[in-house]
Amino acid sequence: MVEAPIEDKRITLKEAAKLIPDGAHLFWGGFGFQRPPMAFAHELVRQKKRNLTVYTCGSEIDIDILSGAYVVSRFELAFFAIEGIGLAPNIQRRIREGAIQIEDYTNLAMALRFLGGALGVPFMPLKSMLGTDLIAKTKFRPKKAEVITCPFTGEKVVLVPSVRPDFSIVHVSRVDREGNAQIDGIKGEDVEGARAGKKVIVLAEEIVDTEFIRSQPDQTAIPNIYVNYVVECPWGAYPMMVYNYYDYDMEHVRMYYQQCKTEEGWQKYCEEYITGVEDHMEFLKKIGMERLLKLRAKKPFPY
Amino acid sequence: MVEAPIEDKRITLKEAAKLIPDGAHLFWGGFGFQRPPMAFAHELVRQKKRNLTVYTCGSEIDIDILSGAYVVSRFELAFFAIEGIGLAPNIQRRIREGAIQIEDYTNLAMALRFLGGALGVPFMPLKSMLGTDLIAKTKFRPKKAEVITCPFTGEKVVLVPSVRPDFSIVHVSRVDREGNAQIDGIKGEDVEGARAGKKVIVLAEEIVDTEFIRSQPDQTAIPNIYVNYVVECPWGAYPMMVYNYYDYDMEHVRMYYQQCKTEEGWQKYCEEYITGVEDHMEFLKKIGMERLLKLRAKKPFPY
Amino acid sequence: MDKNYAKLGEFTTLELMAVCGARAIKNGEVVFVGTGLPMIAAMLAKRTHAPNAKIVYEAGFIDSNAIDIALSIADSRLGYRASAAIGLIETLGLLLQGGHVDVGFVGAAQIDEYGNINTTYIGDFENPTVRLPGSGGGNDIVSSAKRIVIIMTHEKRKMVKKLDYLTSPGFLDGPKAREKAGLLGGGPSLVVTNLCQMDFDPETKRIRLATIHPGVTLQQILDNIGFDLIVPENVPTTEPPTYEELVILRAIDPHGIYIPRQG
Amino acid sequence: MDKNYAKLGEFTTLELMAVCGARAIKNGEVVFVGTGLPMIAAMLAKRTHAPNAKIVYEAGFIDSNAIDIALSIADSRLGYRASAAIGLIETLGLLLQGGHVDVGFVGAAQIDEYGNINTTYIGDFENPTVRLPGSGGGNDIVSSAKRIVIIMTHEKRKMVKKLDYLTSPGFLDGPKAREKAGLLGGGPSLVVTNLCQMDFDPETKRIRLATIHPGVTLQQILDNIGFDLIVPENVPTTEPPTYEELVILRAIDPHGIYIPRQG
Fold first, then answer.
1. N or C, which end of chain B is more exposed by having fewer CB within 10 Å?
2. Cα dist from C72 to A32, B142, B201, C191, C238, whole Å
3. Can you tell me the ipTM of this complex?
4. CB pairs under 8 A, 24+ apart, for B140-143?
């Protein structure tokens, strides 16, 4: 009788980013301030990736950084801003320069597009977007959405095209070496998005033993079958938050927002915190242990 | 400042069954041997309900009992049998008598029909059923499924009509008085089915304090907003199983199967275990505490 | 019951707006809100007249009982004593589009006289002056909630005859237009601004003055609006906050994150 | 490697069928199975040549490592050391229709020469002799898995020229028919019976004899089939179980629930 060797899908953050070719299409996980793949965004900037297309519901500093550094040229999304503070500063400038195009959907439409891709069907139906410019106006998709008459009820239904990006990038609570991932708290659209990608890279706050996962299989949010690569990436969403792990660093977020209002400010931020540091660990050292430890979630609160 | 009074949605099994009028349409939860609403089936038989339409993926003794007692006249489903043993004996007879009609779908089609109903859209797309009699032949639905050409890819896609039954009946692991339900182990199609019903009755192995639920909100499978009634119903799936609670009683299941091969045998079973006992508690007493306690799950196994 | 109303000068305009929002929520209702003033309004409602209101945040928090102010709709703070923490398809799809949401709160960069909303572009679609955040879940909420409360500042450039971009559907071009378009929800029912409250004429579906905030004149309202507002004969003054409401409100946001303390 | 094959009489036909099923699974593959023989076959594969095969059961158990025999596809036993326990849309929708399943195992009450399957009615659709269990997830599996293994008993009334009802799509009416119908999966690749193994001719998509079980004659096979079987010139004998396979197989089902002990 044969014991199954545990598959080891672990690679480094650098190796993970190297997998993404220029021009690739990515599902980008996290929602709002929760679990954005921030460290992965930094590494894509360090490796000077270009011309990516990013699919997401609503994202914030993470995609603003990708925009500022000219990593992404197209977005299909529903929302971007720095919530509670203001408009995302780099995206504004890059749109004015013509360096970025955005195809607008709603959050539900995007989440369903990921579900449709994951389900292997070419579209999903929904009842949003009807009667609005979200259907009437398109930027670059030849067919952005179709309104059809339901063959059963006669009512109008919108079909939105499914998405199967080249890679799905998600940042989770914990994962084992085989790629079985748990996500604490809200899942946003990561459950669907992680299943939509042709290849899936899971970044996690911590790597846990596979027996821990297998002792509670109903806690698995993303099973190993979908996952190609696993990256251990503690504090990988900083300065944003991870449920049960750490809070956001509003001081850093506000500093980012203020400084990036000008191109020079953004260049300075990028040099100081991204391109000027060797890797994610050096970034964390720059932020400083004291600051990070203060942000740890205070049980029983998840923040 | 006002403290929110906890809403109390608890009713008895008898009261819950009384809510179902003759001719009602039900989503029927559980899958295979896992968490069927068996006690609810018994009570529907005791109350002599008639002419119900039941929507489910795959069910077993529970719907065979509903068929034997002439409670259900129409099913829309994918599978019925007593797995590992044989064909469901009562359903066979009732079909031959013309007392029951079945509209056939696949398990995925039924699960998606519940998801569609829950999502408020009139259909869902899928890639099963193509080229087969599941599309070509219908029993009673004027429009069972439609094959369309995808406006984005040109490929063929099947649309199946969504289901919004009058009631959804689900048996879960635990629930609080407000209706927040947790389900251990597999969920089958209960997550979608519980959200599809116009009214939802949740039966549970145990009622827990709402603070227990609210201390771990990411464990909630069915939030209170969807739920209208809550019924405490320990051993409510016996002789089938509930993950982490108890195993099936194969001796009883085999006895049922053997005895119900004849109409007389079924009538005897029905009288002895269902109509001849006052309620679920009397049924459990008839089975006997010794027998039940032996079936309890042996931790760390969920069975 | 005699209400103990605060006097002009004892509350800020933002406080009044939050109180107006809270009063639009009935007890037991399912309320879909975002961060900012709507969150404060919903928290206030739950702590006053609507303790059994259920607050839903689109990131996945359902029946939230947050005790700390959140900066993001996905903020872990919103998970405190929630019924459930799931995801976007749950909240925007199953709960909202599934027909369970009574009232949704949204903001607007522009609205027109039918309550249509723009949160996407200012200026030309091809060469916009400002690119706004986009729909997010806004279009989903306005499409499918039974009624909608819009909270925004009252400015001529924001209340326009023609939107630069129609992000979320009010009554579109008038009566029956929502039904014809296939929309599920009831459409906008209330607009709360810093000057007044407005509702919608049931016949024409056009926006109509409902109450004027204490200390504000009709002329101020008309001077700051870019479309023809329906003005009924007798427009009452907006019911001011009670002292109780103010005390609770200030306890909700003690650091003045969304409602800065009066200067 | 020299294989240590068991001799005729040392194994039962059901044991041979389980071994044939196991050998159809490659290491690392995602395998969709039901209860009964396919479950035993998949468990045997995992304990012999395919330790990293991932067994999926449609009720929601993914990458199961069950150590006890399950009677239901939703049996809690299947949750033992699984990667995940979720639900039907996960397994049949996201995993299977999503394109992640390499091989699916199904049974059949009837098949025709193109590998089309009936598990719904015997007799007339309006007045059937027997109402079978129906598709369950069978049609979903046969529609979308990359390849399909059918396990069934070899009887004339089961291998028919025309099905009473077409539940699950083989190659429909021949080459390119699956593609024309819009189906995603690769279709049937192997039929394991108590007499032989059959595969499908790549040109005509018709069923073809592949191997004959030890002790069985070609005539027996032809006598028990209701359609024209393609018989190649040299048909090898089915590779018998090894002693190692038999020992492991008997340990998997020690009480003979699905594979009764030799009488």
1. N
2. 6, 48, 34, 23, 30
3. 0.97
4. B140/B74, B140/B101, B140/B103, B141/B76, B141/B103, B143/A151, B143/A152
Q: Is A248 on the interface with C (CB under 8 A)?
A: yes
Token pair listed for A81: 């801003």
Is B148 within a domain? no
Of C33, C117, C38, C46, the closest CA to residue C81 belongs to C46
CB pairs under 8 A between A and C: 193
pTM: 0.98
Residue A132 within any structural domain of the chain: no
Give the residue carrying structure tokens 């809403």: B7
The neighbours of chain B, by the rule of 3 or more Cβ pairs under 8 Å, are A, C, D
Q: What is the DSSP letter of D34?
A: -
D134 to B301: CB separation less than 8 angstroms, yes or no:
no
Q: How confident is the model at residue B1 (pLDDT cuts 50, 70, 90)?
A: low
Q: How far is D97 from chain A (nearest CA, A)?
A: 5
Binning pLDDT at 50, 70 and 90, where does residue B6 land?
Answer: confident
* Strand pairing report for A123-126 and A156-161: antiparallel
Q: Could you list the pLDDT tens digit for every one of the 263 residues in chain C?
A: 457 999 999 999 999 999 999 999 999 999 999 888 999 999 999 999 999 999 999 999 999 999 999 999 999 999 999 999 999 999 999 999 999 999 999 999 999 999 999 999 999 999 899 999 999 999 999 999 999 999 999 999 999 999 999 999 999 999 999 999 999 999 999 999 999 999 999 999 999 999 999 999 999 999 999 999 999 999 999 999 999 999 999 999 998 989 987 65
Domains recognised in chain D with CATH numbers: 13-252 (3.40.1080.10)
Amino acid at B124: M
Rounded CA-CA distance A100/A45 in Å is 16
Q: Which of B1, B3, B224 sits opposite C83 (nearest CB)?
A: B224
Domain total in chain A: 1
Determine how many CB atoms are found less than 10 A away from the CB of residue B75.
26
Interface test with A, best of B218, B244, B299 (most A CBs within 10 A): B218
Tokens 């649309």 identify what position?
B159
* CA nearest to B127, candidates D169, D103, A120, D94: A120
Q: Is the pLDDT of residue D46 over 70?
A: yes
Judge contact between A77 and A136, C-beta under 8 A.
Answer: no
For strands D207-212 and D128-131, give the pairing. unpaired
Is residue A266 assigned to a domain? yes
| Nearest neighbour of D61 by CB, restricted to B136, B186, B241 | B186
Average predicted confidence (pLDDT) for chain A: 97
In this predicted structure, the answer to whether residue A5 has a pLDDT above a threshold of 90 is no
Residue indicated by tokens 């035993």: D40
Retrieve residue A35's tokens: 């679990």
Amino acid present at B230: V
Strands D30-32, C207-212: pairing is unpaired
Here the tokens at position A19 are: 């997998």
> A144 in a domain, yes or no?
no
Which of D15, D29, D58, D113 does the annotation list as catalytic? Answer: D58
Kindly report, residue by residue over B104-126, the tens digit of the pLDDT.
Answer: 999 999 999 999 999 999 999 99
CATH of the domain at A37: 3.40.1080.10
pLDDT at D99 over 60: yes
Output the six-digit token pair for B113.
């029909």
Give the residue numbers of C annotated as catalytic, written as ranges.
58
Domain extent at residue A177: 13-106+164-275
Helices within chain A (DSSP H only): 13-18, 38-46, 61-68, 89-97, 107-119, 133-136, 190-196, 210-214, 250-259, 263-270, 280-287, 289-295
Q: Which of D47, D49, D62 sits opposite A223 (nearest CB)?
A: D62
Cis amide linkage into residue C260, ω under 30° from 0: no
Question: What's the rounded Cα separation, in Å, for the pair C130 and D101?
Answer: 47
Residue C85 CA to residue C63 CA, distance in Å, equals 9
